[in-house]
Specification:
Number of strands: 0
Number of helices: 11
Order of helices and strands: HHHHHHHHHHH
Helix content: 55-70%
Length: 230
Amino acid sequence: MRHFALALLTAATLAFSPAQAEDAAPFTSAKSVDLQLFLKPPPADDSVQTKAELGEVLTLQVTRTPEMEAKAKADAEENVWRFADVMGPAFKPEALPVFSAFFDRVVATEGAVVDPAKDSWKRPRPHQLSPLVKPVVKISNSGAYPSGHTTVGTLMGIVLSNMVPEKRVEIMNRAWFYGENRIIGGIHYRSDIEAGRIAGSVIAARIMEQQDFQTEFAAAKAELRKALGL
């Protein structure tokens, strides 16, 4: 029995290893959620709106504090553990293997839906449009619109707040700042963030209708609430 229990523990550890997280299957894709049907095209590069949004990025570049820069750099990471500051000390991967695997799929869903839209619109990033922009986060040259980080932050926030409605306000505030930090970091325009919030909401609404999502959501929710003592 002891050897059997050890084998189960080893299998569980392998099942939720970081390497496998990268291979998580998305809950849906752009074939089912075509963002070009939900979002208007991004502003043109030479439009008044883009020029104003570029001005916001440049203003933040000279007004952001070291603390703001540090938070923007930290939020460049795309995973649900960025919500730990509002979820408390029990919110950690080693305590939540089922929850962790579930959110690996949630994060993978963002890329599967958003990347095709980015590739289609190909909006230049602020630093690609103006040499004056100096991002403090990791440079990305993929399409700027919509913001993938904001999409996944909004999506994770909605799903997580449905698991812990007692913290809904704090969770959604955290999700909002997750998107804002992309502007502060100098890697996105305001309209990219706004589109990401719409995209995350649309994706959440769609996948919550699916049976596979509902089944895994229930198990992840139960594990999380038990870990949090709720």
